[in-house]
Design a protein that fits this description.
With 221 residues, the chain is of the alpha/beta class. The chain is built from 6 helices and 7 strands, in the order αβαβαβαββαββα. The structure holds 5-O-phosphono-beta-D-ribofuranosylamine. 5-O-phosphono-beta-D-ribofuranosylamine binds next to helix 2, strand 5 and helix 6.
């Protein structure tokens, strides 16, 4: 099937939810993903393994990293995935935004998955509601600028919360913000450290992110 520039759904009138879902479900099997990373790449590799083992009906069209020297880039290459680096450090913000959008559009994704992507991307209107993120806490709490990695889990412990979890959400142009698609709760246990809580939350993330992608692919989110 030939693909129109950018995403197939661009052909539809903006604002038509039913038609958006209809076209998406009918034409995008398996759903084509662009995955954005900045770090370790565990989330990316989890998605890749789920796809490989037939547990997620999707295809990773390509990976874009905002950093060159990170484990995620090496892991993606080892996994045989096409990787492009759009370096946040080497570009001013306008150039970064332009190059990132260009790299995403070239992949012709149905869905863009942020997977530990630490830069703010000004999402173009055409991709609005096609970009999702996973955050290792129960948003709207413990999100926003500076809330990443172990900082999130330390903040949860410092606040004395009995529960944490992860959130998959559509992205807008604010950090960790946008309509929530799916959340999974995990307990905070006595004696937890930020590391032990992070590991428990990450286990939940490995189930929750693929499930959310499958929901979107099936038109259920
Ligand atoms: C995950 O905890 C995810 O929730 C958050 O960043 C972490 C990514 O880890 N957005 P990795 O870079 O995939 O190893």
């Amino acid at each position: 099937m030939s693909r129109t520039p950018c995403c197939r759904y661009l052909a539809l009138p903006l604002g038509s939810e039913r038609r958006r879902r209809y076209l998406f479900v009918m034409s995008a099997s398996p759903i084509r993903l662009a995955v954005l990373i900045s770090g370790g790449g565990r989330t990316l590799i989890n998605l890749h393994q789920r796809i490989d083992s037939g547990r997620l009906d999707a295809r990773i069209a390509g990976v874009i990293s905002s950093r060159a020297a990170v484990a995620g880039v090496a892991r993606a290459r080892e996994a045989g995935l096409p990787v492009e680096v759009v370096s946040r450090r080497k570009l001013d913000d306008d150039a970064f935004q332009h190059c990132l959008t260009d790299a995403v559009v070239r992949l012709e994704p149905d869905l863009v998955c942020m997977a530990g992507f630490l830069s703010l991307w000004r999402i173009p209107d055409a991709l609005h509601s096609r970009v999702i993120n996973i955050h290792p806490a129960l948003l709207p709490d413990f999100g926003g600028p500076g809330m990443y990695g172990l900082r999130v889990h330390r903040a949860v412990l410092d606040a004395g919360r009995a529960e944490s979890g992860c959130t998959v959400h559509y992205c807008d142009n604010e950090y960790d913000h946008g309509p929530i698609i799916l959340q999974t709760r995990v307990p905070v246990l006595p004696g937890d450290t930020a590391e032990s809580l992070a590991a428990r939350v990450f286990e939940a993330e490995c189930e929750t992110y693929p499930r959310a992608i499958q929901m979107i692919a099936g038109g259920a989110a």
